[in-house]
Write a structure and sequence with these properties.
22 strands; 4 domains; about 25% helix; Immunoglobulin-like; elongated; DUF58; alpha+beta; six-stranded mixed sheet; 8 helices
């Protein structure tokens, strides 16, 4: 029986294996048997009492072990809570062995994984038997987003004097789904050219809102609660306050996951280009959705992913879940992606492209977006000290420097078209750019 969900994973491992698992004698018991037989035979043949005395402890242990041989088959239940957590968070990986009253201790062997840190550390963990149960809890800390599979685990029950053992029982751990960590991110600037019904962005037109616009004479249809009594009393005529309408904006987040440049060391170390892009997309989505914007996510990767336009907490969870399933190309500049499909963005939409700008396909994608008249912001996710390949290979270093020169020319080309290219630096990265875009007239989107 197994139960799997975002809050946890529970499975009875030995429910289908009790027929093939049984207590077996260990090499220690066989060595004690051989020592007792040989020492007893040698004492009888040579008539040496000292050899018989030396054999006595082995005979006692052997007799005691055979008389108390375990007969019950233990049952192993494994549990992981929670099965979904944020980057840098911790989960509890528990293994409980029941019906082990005949055993003396339980040995758990856990293999290590790169982006998982455990307490106790990976290796062999010995747990004493308490009554009829032995339980081992391992705290697992996820150091990087993505699907992180725990290392292979084997559980073995050992009887007193290490005479018999049950197992090892091989456990295939579940996959731990790690979503990008929530970064501290905030935008002081509003989203440019909002075009919706409700939101927190100030519109250029007058309407129901909270930001003061002007005071004008009362007109038929004005609400009485908007009457400005000090001005009305001073002029002798009714005047009302007017405000700017508040609208939401349509924001499209486009993540370039075709390559991963740089070294990834988890939340406590250096970040690769894909780490920066995924965490930036998660931070932007969280902030924009809290402001009431409509957000869509598109991931350009060998296995493309997409989250349709939506709002609210459920949309935020969908985006985090999708980002945690982004495929990482461990070969660096390996498999190439297909040409990105045209983006279905409405008039006044804001497109934020998160890319390291090392792939010519995505440079062309940005240029096509500009040609169609969208408001586009390019977020440069390439780490400043990014390297590829072996650092001691001069040819690889030369090729990377040439690619960086080409990349600089492509960035200059994008900027000459009026598109901002902003390095990702966390909070405040996009404030100035959004203010500049808001000051521009609304672009006219060309039909495809």
């Amino acid at each position: 029986m197994s139960q799997t969900g975002p809050l946890g994973y529970r499975r009875d491992v030995t429910a289908s294996r009790t027929a093939i698992q049984r207590w077996r004698p260990t090499p220690t018991l066989l060595q004690a048997l051989a020592t007792a037989v040989l020492a007893g035979a040698a004492a009888a043949l040579t008539r040496r009492v000292d050899l018989l005395v030396l054999a006595t402890p082995f005979v006692v242990v052997l007799a005691w072990s055979l008389a108390t041989r375990p007969t019950r088959a233990p049952r192993l239940t494994v549990e992981l809570q929670p099965a979904v957590l944020h980057e840098g968070g911790s989960a509890r990986w528990s293994m409980e062995l029941t019906d082990v009253g005949d055993a003396d201790q339980v040995v758990t062997t856990v293999e290590g994984r790169r982006f998982l840190d455990t307490d106790p550390p990976f290796g062999e963990i010995v747990t004493p038997v308490d009554g009829d149960t032995a339980r081992q809890d391992i705290t697992v800390r996820a150091l990087r987003w993505g699907a992180q599979r725990l290392g292979g685990t084997a559980v073995t029950a050992v009887s007193p004097w290490n005479a018999y053992r049950f197992g090892p029982i091989d456990v295939t751990p579940p996959t731990l789904q790690v979503t990008p960590g929530a970064l501290l991110f905030d935008l002081d600037a509003t989203t440019p050219h909002p075009q919706g019904l409700v939101g927190q962005n100030r519109s250029r037109r007058r309407g129901d809102g909270s930001e003061f616009a002007d005071i004008r004479p009362f007109q038929a249809g004005d609400r009485l609660r908007r009457i400005h009594w000090p001005v009305s009393a001073r002029t002798g005529e009714l005047h009302v306050r007017t405000t700017y309408a508040e609208e939401d904006a349509e924001v499209h987040l486009v993540l370039d996951a075709s390559v991963d440049v740089g070294t990834s060391e988890g939340v406590d170390g250096a970040a690769s280009s894909l780490d920066r892009g995924v965490r930036a997309a998660a931070a932007l989505a969280q902030h924009l959705l809290r402001r009431g914007e409509r957000v869509e996510l598109t991931v350009h990767a060998p296995d493309p992913l997409h989250v349709a336009l939506g709002v609210g907490l459920r949309q935020h969870r969908r985006i985090l879940d999708t980002l945690s399933r982004v495929h990482v190309d461990v070969a660096g500049l390996g498999r190439r992606t297909r040409r990105p499909r045209p983006l279905r963005a409405g008039p006044g939409a804001l497109v934020i492209v998160l890319t390291p700008l090392v792939d010519e396909e995505h440079t062309g994608f940005v240029l096509r977006l500009a040609a169609h008249g969208h408001s586009v912001i390019v977020v440069d996710c390439l780490p400043p000290d990014a390297r590829i390949g072996r650092s001691d290979d001069p040819l690889v270093g030369l090729a990377w420097r040439l690619r960086q020169l080409e990349r600089g020319l492509e960035i200059d080309r994008i900027r000459r078209l009026g598109l901002p290219v902003v390095p990702w630096r966390g909070p405040g990265s996009l404030d100035q750019v959004l203010r500049q875009l808001s000051a521009r007239p609304r672009p006219r989107v060309r039909a495809r």
